[in-house]
Design a protein that fits this description.
Layout (H helix, E strand, L loop, with lengths): L9 H8 L1 E2 L9 H9 L3 E4 L7 H14 L4 E4 L20 H7 L2 H17 L4 E2 L24 H17 L3 E7 L15 E2 L3 H17 L4 E4 L3 E2 L12 H11 L5 E3 L6 H4 L4 H11 L4 E2 L7 H16 L5 H24 L18 H9 L1 E4 L12 E5 L16 H7 L4 E5 L5 H8 L4 E5 L6 H13 L4 E4 L11 E4 L5 H12 L2
Parallel strand pairs: 1-10, 2-3, 3-4, 4-5, 5-7, 6-8, 7-9, 12-13, 12-14, 14-15, 15-16
Antiparallel strand pairs: 11-16
Helix pairs in contact: 1-11, 1-12, 4-13, 5-6, 6-7, 10-11, 13-17, 14-17
Length: 505
């Protein structure tokens, strides 16, 4: 790799400043510390970087020993998308559960507690909340990450979430602008396209973002989606019409514009990450998120040098890069000022399950349950059941590292509980053979999106009508079973709440 300019050069520092890279490991590698010393202002954390609160706090302290104003970012939505508790499942229900309760004070309390735990570990920028209006129930990547399908409901809970995070000094990054809810393609794999008119866009997608901006969201994350009514050629992340024209000028947003992950196929397979990053900054983005898949020094250097070269050749105005870097530094100064005031409150350094005195996550999960009894009154289970989990392929944002379901939680209440996982080739005969004489609890996730799952559930209920059904995805299917429990999300805490109800605790 050829370094185009010296590390002390202002242009190079600005190019490093606008990057938000990831890395591999639970301690910071030497190359990352070196680049922080040269001007890198942000670092993104993923599940692979975290094993425990104390380790995370030590990691962020290591980063700040190099530069005390470095922004430490994370994708911690709670619910299905968790990095803090990637190996256990989240202590907080996600947006869909909170939207189903529709208590903005509860949403604010959940976000505040989640933010407090992030701040206690030294994280000060959260790539959340999702403000997408999930108007397409078949959306493969948003789903329960959205507060719901009603723009006004999504708006009021987005505001509450932003308020909760930022009250404890963690900057919110409202996403995925201008709205990823009406897509049937996952932008991790391809470029989604939304062909709605401007009237629909303003009445639906943009409502939560307007509200978040008015509430003072410190950052907004762009979506890798093509909105033909605004820009028929470039996805939002690379579109001057959308980032500068719509977000900056029309909506009046003055905070940090962060891109979604540049290695996602919607960008990388068409433009490449180097050209994509140059186009994003030129379009009005201020920070380049990369590191979910590409997490090495070479990636940082490639993007740094692409930005420097673009300025040198006149493709990227130097003042645009300088403005982007200044916005990054301004947010870093805001978070640093809040961090200096410290984190207070019960259990500030804890993050095991729900910390003592901070059970708001479990409270929210219990309130989010929607229970539909069958024809006969339900009697709580007193003996260990068999849990049949019908398991779809996880989307990239959720990942397959994080456990979900209710078997572990039910096993704590009813020792001896056993479980099996069943995919698209599920055999109901196999479920019945494994269950034997035990009562069956069927766990499904987005059954409306998976015909094989609905078919397997129908066959199971025909054979064993006393089966309890737990729906942990979007609650779109008709309730059925001896008892139907919609948890509105698959977080561990949602499983706890459902298990309590099944066991009558």
């Amino acid at each position: 790799m050829t370094t185009l300019v010296r590390g002390s050069d202002t242009l190079t520092r600005d190019a490093l400043t606008v990057l938000q890279p990831g890395f591999v490991g639970t301690t910071a590698p030497d190359w990352l510390l070196r680049r922080i010393g040269e001007g890198l202002s942000s670092v993104g954390l993923f599940g692979r970087n975290i094993v425990a609160p104390a380790q995370l706090a030590a990691l962020t302290a290591q980063l700040r020993a190099e530069r005390d104003d470095v922004l430490v970012a994370i994708d911690e939505e709670g619910g299905d998308v968790t990095r803090l508790e990637v190996k256990e499942g989240s202590s907080f229900p996600g947006n869909y559960a909170l939207g189903s309760v529709d208590d903005v004070e509860l949403t604010r309390a959940v976000a505040r507690e989640l933010g407090r735990r992030l701040a206690a570990c030294g994280v000060d920028l959260n790539w959340a909340p999702s403000a997408d209006v999930n108007s397409n129930a078949d959306n493969p990547v948003i789903g329960v990450r959205s507060f719901g399908a009603d723009p006004e409901l999504v708006a009021r809970h987005t505001v509450a979430y932003v308020d909760g995070l930022q009250a404890v000094g963690v900057a919110a990054c409202t996403k995925h602008f201008p709205g990823h809810g009406d897509t049937n393609v996952d932008s991790h794999h391809a470029l989604p396209r939304i062909d709605v008119g401007l009237d629909t866009l303003h009445a639906r997608e943009l409502v939560p973002f307007r509200a978040a901006i008015a509430a003072g969201s410190k950052a907004v994350m762009s979506a890798h989606i093509l909105l033909s009514a605004l820009d028929p050629e470039r996805p939002a992340t690379l579109s001057p019409q959308i980032l500068t024209g719509l977000l900056r000028r029309e909506l009046g947003f003055e905070g940090l514009i962060v891109t979604d992950g540049m290695e996602m196929q919607a960008i990388s397979s068409t433009y490449g990450i180097e050209r994509g990053s140059v186009l994003a900054i030129a379009a009005g983005a201020d920070a380049i998120c990369v590191g979910g898949g590409l997490a090495d020094e070479d990636t940082v250097l490639r993007l740094r040098d692409a930005l420097v070269t673009a300025v040198r050749t006149g493709e990227l105005p130097e003042e645009r890069l300088a403005d982007a870097a200044a916005r990054v530094r301004a947010l870093a100064a805001w978070t640093q000022a809040h961090r200096a005031r410290g984190v207070s409150g019960p259990g500030a350094a804890q993050q095991e399950g729900t910390a003592p005195g901070t059970e708001v996550g479990l409270v929210a999960a219990r309130r989010a349950l929607k229970v539909t009894p069958g024809e006969q009154p339900y009697q709580p289970m007193t003996s260990a059941p068999y849990v049949a989990a019908f398991t779809p392929v996880a989307n990239f944002a959720v990942g397959d590292e994080t456990p979900w379901g209710i078997a572990a939680e039910l096993g704590r209440l009813l020792p001896g509980t056993e479980t099996g996982s069943y995919g698209a080739d599920a055999s109901v005969d196999a479920v019945l053979a494994a269950a034997g004489e035990r009562r069956v609890v069927a766990v499904v996730r987005d059954a409306h999106r998976h015909p094989w799952m609905a078919k397997a559930l129908d066959a199971l209920l025909a054979a064993r009508p006393d089966t309890v059904v737990v729906e942990m995805g979007l609650n779109e299917s008709e309730p059925r079973g001896a008892l139907h429990i919609a948890t509105h999300g698959a977080a561990r805490v949602c499983g706890t709440a459902a298990a309590e109800l099944i066991a009558g605790r």
